Amino acid sequence: MVERETKVSVMMTFTGLLMLMELVVGLISHSLTLTADAFHMLSDTISLVVGLISIKISKRPADKSNSFGYQ
């Protein structure tokens, strides 16, 4: 089974690449719709980055202040 971290990384990569393509095509063609959607996808990419960071934090082992770990 594929790890959650890998799945989120792949989704983040594809979303980021599609965002860049939409932004470039939107700017070249002077399309406000494509440019606006590219910035909407930027917020999706940022959300995936936050999700990836939270997955990495949740893998930390338990310590004195968090006896059950960071689950």
Automatic annotation (TrEMBL):
Gene Ontology BP, a term: intracellular zinc ion homeostasis
Chief location: membrane
Keyword Hydrolase: no
A Pfam family it matches: Cation_efflux
Localisation: Membrane
Domain (Cation efflux protein transmembrane): residue spans on this chain: 11-71
GO terms, molecular function: zinc ion transmembrane transporter activity
Leader peptide range in chain numbering: none
Family assignment from sequence similarity: Belongs to the cation diffusion facilitator (CDF) transporter (TC 2.A.4) family. SLC30A subfamily.
Protein name: Cation efflux protein
Species this chain originates from: Kipferlia bialata
